[in-house]
Design a protein that fits this description.
Its cofactor is pyridoxal 5'-phosphate. InterPro entries: Aromatic_deC (IPR010977), PyrdxlP-dep_de-COase (IPR002129), PyrdxlP-dep_Trfase (IPR015424), PyrdxlP-dep_Trfase_major (IPR015421), PyrdxlP-dep_Trfase_small (IPR015422). Keywords: Aminotransferase, Decarboxylase, Lyase, Pyridoxal phosphate, Transferase. The chain has 454 residues and is α/β, with parallel strands linked by helices. Among the domains are: 64 residues; 253 residues, Aspartate Aminotransferase, domain 2. The chain has 14 helices and 12 strands. The chain has a 7-stranded mixed β-sheet with strand order 2-8-7-6-5-3-4, with helices on both faces. Helix 4 runs antiparallel to helix 12, helix 6 packs across helix 8 and helix 6 crosses helix 11. It starts with 5 loop residues before the first helix and ends with a helix.
């Protein structure tokens, strides 16, 4: 029996185009409740086959109300980018080709694509030429992998082989990290068996940047990892990496640059190349479909020691790069293909323009919302806005999400509730910002009136 590819793939393509072409006017938030989604998607386990075209059609109909339009030009939540046409198309092909991109022997094209894209990325960020690269799921696994290499290296210098002997009896590792760090750092340290009690919070300034004077007081006390930040998740502020790296000495410096690292493509970040490892997301400012994270390590031997694997049944070509030596996965999809296509289609100039445009739109948000309280210096794509008190601010955030014109998330910054606006989509234009600002103002007026009536 010949498989029918054209039917279900044709239906999927038609549904995809309807969705993509509808993004400019689609409500940004989801409108179906969880119970409504379960009712449409659930039911008894199917006992007999269902026509593939019908399956795809029914699936698309059932999930419609539960889709958040994260690819919309007016989605400003969680630092989520969209997907450029080239990266989305390449990702479709990667799924069709269905390569297991762990070994060169199993997927030569996927391995070489990653190798070339890795070289481009190192050049784009201005990192040391020998830097190794791993293509992972996102910032969480990028931080995990970079910190795994760091754990190996600082303990090796202390005379301990953690990959062979584990952590029982090992010298204590201290992790110095800013008080305003991202939660993925703590989680990675839990995964690595170091635990969160190894963390020594370092004081930060009013924008969340690590203070070098506070860091200096904590150095020189045994095996140490310093975890700096390029792009505070709330303010976008970048730690003073040059001073941090100079002070660190023998300590390993890891940079969590989930989105801020991309700003280095246009404007070099002072001291960035002096660090030992770096983490970022391609599904943020490169606008590549999920999932797509990147980890970089200036010490490939440490990177491979922490991640590499050998087995008698695997085919290793010592002259070729095996992707599984640089990430925590074994079997994995060829996510490097979408990254390659995004970089090739945009080029350095296109990436710089994308980042600059998002930053300019963030500045526009701050300027248009200055009648309220903007809490941060808008240095990248993050804007924090407060509407009076905590209660009103939280109600405005919820009202904007439900209104549908735009979608922003809420946050707590220095103990105060705020709306967090993250401009990360390659299609966001001035009209999108202005339309979103008007929606915010309407919601503020409505919520203020309710407060008065209450």
């Amino acid at each position: 029996m010949e498989p029918d590819w054209e039917g279900p793939l044709g239906e999927a393509y038609a549904r995809a185009m309807t969705y993509l072409e509808g993004l400019p006017e689609r409500p940004v938030g989801a409108w179906a409740t969880a119970d409504e989604l379960r009712a449409k998607l659930g039911g008894r386990l199917p006992e007999v086959p269902v026509d593939p075209v019908q399956t795809i059609s029914q699936l698309a109909d059932a999930v419609e109300g539960g889709l958040v339009a994260t690819g919309s030009a007016r989605f400003f939540g969680f630092v989520i980018g969209g997907a450029t046409p080239a990266s989305l198309a390449a990702d479709w092909l990667a799924t069709v080709w269905d390569q297991n991109a762990g070994l060169y022997a199993a997927a030569p094209a996927a391995a070489v694509v990653e190798e070339i894209a890795a070289g481009w990325l190192v050049e784009l960020f201005g990192l040391p030429a020998q830097t190794s690269v791993g293509f992972v799921t996102g910032g969480q696994m990028a931080n995990f992998t970079g910190l795994a290499a760091a754990r190996y290296d600082v303990l090796r210098k202390a005379g301990w082989d953690v990959e062979a002997d584990g952590l029982i009896g090992a010298p204590r590792v201290r992790v110095l990290v800013g008080a305003e760090r991202h939660g993925t750092v703590d989680r990675a340290l839990r995964f690595l068996g170091l635990g969160t009690r190894c963390i020594v919070p370092v004081a930060v300034d009013g924008q969340g940047r690590m203070r070098p004077d506070a860091l200096e007081r904590e150095l020189g006390q045994g095996p140490t990892i310093v975890c700096a930040q390029a792009g505070n998740v709330n303010t976008g502020a970048i730690d003073p990496l040059d001073e941090i790296c100079e002070l660190a000495g023998d300590a390993w410096v890891h940079v969590d640059g989930a989105f801020g690292l991309w700003s280095a493509v246009g404007t070099p970040i002072n001291g960035l190349a002096k660090a030992d490892s770096w983490a970022t997301d391609a599904h943020k400012w490169l606008n590549v479909p999920y999932d797509s994270g990147l980890v970089f390590c200036a010490h490939p031997a440490a990177h491979r020691a922490a991640m590499g694997v050998r087995a008698s049944y695997l085919i290793h070509d010592e002259d070729q790069r095996d992707p599984l030596d640089y990430n925590p996965e074994f079997s994995r999809r060829a996510r490097g293909i979408a990254v390659y296509a995004a970089i090739r289609a945009l080029g350095r100039q296109g990436i710089v323009e994308l980042v600059d445009r998002c930053c300019a739109m963030a500045q526009r948000f701050a300027a248009r919302l200055n009648e309220y309280e903007v809490l941060n210096d808008v240095v990248l794509n993050q804007v924090l806005v407060r509407f009076g008190d905590d209660d009103l601010t939280k109600r405005v955030v919820k009202a904007v999400q439900q209104e549908g014109t735009a979608w922003m998330s809420g946050t707590t910054w220095q103990g105060r509730a705020a709306m967090r606006i993250s401009v990360s989509n390659w299609t966001t234009a001035e009209a999108d910002v202005d339309r979103s600002v008007e929606a915010i103002r309407r919601c503020v007026e409505i919520e203020q009136a309710r407060s008065t009536q209450g």
